[in-house]
Amino acid sequence: MVQNKLDFKGVQEKAKELDFPGSVLEFFEGLMGQPYGGFPEPLRSDALRDRRKMDKRPGLYLDPFDFDKARKSLSEKYGNISETDLASYAMYPKVFEDYRKWITTYGDLSVLPTKYFLAKPELGEEFEVELEKGKRLIIRLLAVGPLSEQTGQREVFFEMNGEGRVIAVDDRKAAVENVSRPKADPSDSSQCGAPMSGVVVELRVKNGASVNKGDPLAVLSAMKMEMVVSAPHSGKVADVTVKEGDSVNGGDLLVKIGK
After folding, report:
1. CB 195 within 8 A of CB 3
2. Percent of the chain with pLDDT over 90
3. Nearest to 177 by CA among 98, 245, 229, 251
4. How much is the pLDDT for 128?
5. What is the mean pLDDT of the chain?
6. Of 5, 128, 207, 232, which is most buried with the most CB atoms under 10 A?
7. Are the C-beta atoms of residues 254 and 240 closer than 8 Å to each other?
């Protein structure tokens, strides 16, 4: 609402045209249950349009889930799978897949103190990591080397239980580029802009594709919230100005649609 300069009345009046975050639409569907006093109408119907409405317990509407099949598939892919892993995958499949990719790349970091998971230690700072009962690592950061322009990495020198070690670490901040994107003209319905800042996680259309009003064009993600950007009118896609993985700011042009 703040990004698009809307107040409560504006949301009500433009609900049929606005792209609401996926979490808001799921709430209006009834996936979180029924609010006391019911859903506000006509806001709910205008926001959902042709999406389903659940007026009973959400579980009654869900498709059956084959836990045995999922357990077998996950075990073949990742090895030993716990009941917690299975439940996590059943509820949040994409989040679980991302989590497993992280574990494959970096190992189990759950043993790392939260402070050092979120931020690097200071030079000369010493901290402990308990791998298991009776097995403890004492780590001290010694130095951080210069950036390698060829690899985008830095050598990190540290002591582990008194022994000198060195590893190469990707410097992600050094690889960040500032990209200036054209802004969508809000008065031109053929220009579809990003309703919020985020990352383009999925493109649903290509240049030359025919779309109908309300068809999904792209999916943005920001702070674990996803939003589908839909076509404001029917026509042909004239230009897709972004690609999957791009970071965008609110108002940045995503897609142009000809009539």
Report:
1. yes
2. 29
3. 245
4. 92
5. 87
6. 232
7. yes
Q: Which pair of tokens denotes residue 216?
A: 């999904």
**Which residues, at least 6 apart from 33, have a Cβ–Cβ distance to it below 8 Å?**
57, 58
Question: Which single residue is written with the structure tokens 């939003």?
Answer: 227
Look up residue 96 and give its two tokens.
Answer: 């679980």
CATH topology of domain 114-174: pyruvate carboxylase f1077a mutant fold (3.10.600)
CATH architecture of 67-106: Orthogonal Bundle (1.10)
Instruction: Indicate the CATH number for domain 191-258.
Output: 2.40.50.100
The 10s digit of each residue's pLDDT in 37-94 is 889 999 999 999 888 899 888 888 888 999 999 999 999 998 889 999 999 999 888 8
Question: Is 147 a residue whose pLDDT tops 90?
Answer: no
Specify the CATH number for 15-61; select among 1.10.472.90, 3.30.110.10, 3.40.50.720, 1.10.10.10.
Answer: 1.10.472.90
Q: Using 50, 70 and 90 to split pLDDT, how confident is the model at 224? A: low
Contact 165, 223 (CB under 8 A): no
| CA dist., res. 233 & res. 28, Å (int) | 24
Structural domain spans, the chain = 15-61, 67-106, 114-174, 191-258
